[in-house]
Write a structure and sequence with these properties.
Number of strands: 4
Structural class: mainly alpha
Radius of gyration: 17 Å
Shape: globular
Distance between the termini: 51 Å
Strand order of the largest sheet: 1-2
Helix content: 55-70%
Order of helices and strands: EEHHHEEHHH
Number of helices: 6
């Protein structure tokens, strides 16, 4: 049996627990993406995030992988800069989370956080960064 979800196909669907977990993860992802759309006015990065997460979910090998895939991106400070961690990290999502953090905190990001945010901003919005003078 084969199921199609948009452009994605799940081949050889088995009636197993992981398949049920995958389906639940896809539903959760849909809710998360709708929340991002509401917060970010349908930013084009959201589609990239969803596509990458769907691919991850369809390839999941365990329930713990699914849980990590649905979690917000994780980063750590290595003593000199902030670096992503985790095998399911999506930089586009990290950029959106930095934006929300800046907005919700009511104050500026820490220096390492700001540098990471600017690095991602320049990567995904190079024309806009150049236009507003961010090198």
């Amino acid at each position: 049996m084969q199921i199609s979800i948009g452009l994605f196909r799940i081949s050889e669907i088995e009636n197993d627990k992981l398949t049920v977990e995958r389906m639940g993860a896809l539903l959760t992802l849909g809710s998360k993406c709708r929340a991002y759309q509401k917060e970010f006015n349908n930013n084009p990065l959201i589609l990239h995030i969803c596509e990458k997460k769907v691919e991850f979910i369809l390839q999941a090998k365990s329930k713990s992988d699914l849980k990590e895939m649905l979690a917000p991106p994780k980063v750590r400070y290595n003593g000199s800069s902030i670096v992503p961690i985790g095998k399911f990290h999506i930089e586009e999502e990290e950029l959106l989370i930095w934006s929300l953090t800046s907005l919700w905190s009511g104050g500026p990001l820490s220096e390492p956080g700001y540098k990471r945010y600017m690095k991602l901003f320049k990567k995904f919005y190079p024309e806009m960064a150049a236009e507003i003078g961010i090198n």
